[in-house]
Amino acid sequence: MSTDSTQNVTNGALGNPLSTESKVLETGAALAQVRIHQQPDPKSPPVAEADTRPPHQDFSPVKQICAHLNAFHVYASDPSRCVEANHYCTHLNEDVRQCLIYDTSLPNARLIGVEYMITPALYSTLSADERRLWHSHVFEVKSGMLIMPGPAALPNAVWEAAETKEMEQVVGLYGKTYHFWQVDRGDKVPLGEAQLMMSFTDMGQFPRFEDVVGDRDARFGVSWERKRGKRADIVEPECLEDWRDEGVMGAREERGYIEEPDVRLDADSVRKTGETKQ
Questions:
Q1: Hey, how many other C-beta atoms are within 10 angstroms of the C-beta on 77?
Q2: Distance between CA 231 and CA 163 in Å, rounded?
Q3: Global pTM?
Q4: Paired residues of 101 in beta bridges
Q5: What are phi and psi of 135, to 5 degrees?
Q6: How do residues 13-43 score in pLDDT, each as one tens digit?
Q7: What is the 3-state secondary structure (H, E, C) of 55-66?
Q8: Are 164 and 234 in contact (CB under 8 A)?
Q9: Rounded distance, CA 136 to CA 67, Å?
Q10: How far is residue 197's CA from residue 93's CA, in Å, rounded to a whole number?
């Protein structure tokens, strides 16, 4: 692996394209995931104790990923900025989920953050100061912004029914999110401190909602308006407190932002963020 400095940009990150050596290693690592079943050689000498190592490199944690969710996160420190977030989530248990967040859903996507989701039962145990770091998913679900992109092979109606069931669970969860890579400002490597991210809590906080979310929908072949209609019967949870105060507006007021946010992100900038750069 080269340690030379570079000004090249590959997949939206500062660095050179993969070398032939790295591609060979990557291919070898992938092949190591395949179990190779072989009959034991009767001529082999006996061993004192069985080898308990798995026959492949163990990727168990990431293999537990069971859902891909897509929505938009807004910076707590500057609600005029937001970014598209592809969540790849696992369930630790019934009360805790954890998600890796990427800027796109492509193979060369950049890992930009993490989100933890917990149930109201756990949220109720948190201190007031800690609760300020968490956000509700009510608006994301009810507005149709939050989607679970489906496989092309399944009929849309079948997948949409499964997605709606998932939304019935997510609507009551609280999320805590940090982004490490500010791709929306063009950073080629993760720079600066981790950024606390929040959720929009009403349409007024996201003036270009229809343009930005509509552009995302066009790429995934979905419609936020249709999803909003399908989710009309999802019951909004009885929040422990006014979740709007815990969302982006509460974060703004704590940092001295009192004017309505002028969200600069538009469909074109979202598209550029998700571009694959070779």
A1: 15
A2: 10
A3: 0.76
A4: 87, 113
A5: -135, 160
A6: 666 787 787 777 666 656 655 544 445 566 6
A7: CCCCCHHHHCCC
A8: yes
A9: 19
A10: 24
